[in-house]
């Protein structure tokens, strides 16, 4: 950060015509009085650029210009609610600790600045205004920055969307393959890995919590429920009875819904007659369990996919649209 400090000293005026037409002088900073600048909200040190020495330019009319620059570390309260489209406001408060308000009054002005492009952040807005800090006059600079979202979108958001789609596709895997449970658990572990990576990027005490964290947590919960439903579907496939009362009732309700759908599609549902009006045999328990498994998979696939679409839509509305 660079600071352009200017003030007028009535004791350092001269007539250039009497001194060889010398209009200005450049002297070390310890040869004249200079304000002792300090930060009101520092991270490590209060004085500004204490280890560096900058020359002072003195003009014949008493105007003194002192340009200082260096690295300034200030406190900044992070707000990662809308990560990776988050914005942060940082404030730098400068004051003179050797003069109080009735001895020195600061004036603040923002001039065109030269900024180095940063790969992660862009400066959106800069403001400057006067303020008071106890008995001191101070200048406050407010800088608003925003994150470049491309890296986080490509490396975090898009993989999460892909895993969310794969999460619902577990119900499309044939039960005979024996890979349903392992596939569902793999997706669940993938969500856990991404949750760990995501939390390592953010500040440890981030308040408020990012919306993406809630979305990722809900997807992990949905993935865990899908693992349970996958196990239930395999038990239905093998014709095993469910000991859990709630799961048993749930499957019975699905079976009733399936029967209603069949009745609506075929009002003459019942025994099937051949061309010779001979009654065909009832479908066996194996075909009945297979039919119920297909209906169960279809319902679970639609519900899980709809839940995923709703979560992505909520994230887009709350984070991207604003």
TrEMBL record:
Q: Tell me yes or no: is Nucleotidyltransferase among this UniProt entry's keywords.
A: no
Q: Where is the protein situated, by its record's location annotation?
A: Membrane
A GO term from the CC aspect: membrane
> What is the protein's name according to its record?
Acetylcholine receptor subunit alpha-like 2 isoform X2
User: What range(s) does the Neurotransmitter-gated ion-channel ligand-binding domain occupy?
Assistant: 3-148
Q: What topology does it adopt in the membrane? A: Multi-pass membrane protein
Q: Which domain of life is it from?
A: Eukaryota
Whether Ligase counts among this entry's keywords is no
Q: Which residues cross the membrane?
A: 153-174, 181-202, 214-234, 295-321
InterPro entries per record? Neur_chan_lig-bd, Neur_chan_lig-bd_sf, Neur_channel, Neuro-gated_channel_TM_sf, Neuro_actylchol_rec, Neurotrans-gated_channel_TM
* Annotated Neurotransmitter-gated ion-channel transmembrane domain residues: 157-256
Q: Which GO terms describe its molecular function?
A: extracellular ligand-gated monoatomic ion channel activity; transmembrane signaling receptor activity
What is the phylogenetic placement of the source species in the record?
Eukaryota, Metazoa, Spiralia, Lophotrochozoa, Mollusca
Q: Which UniProt keywords apply?
A: Membrane, Transmembrane, Transmembrane helix
Annotated CDD domains: LGIC_ECD_cation, LGIC_TM_cation
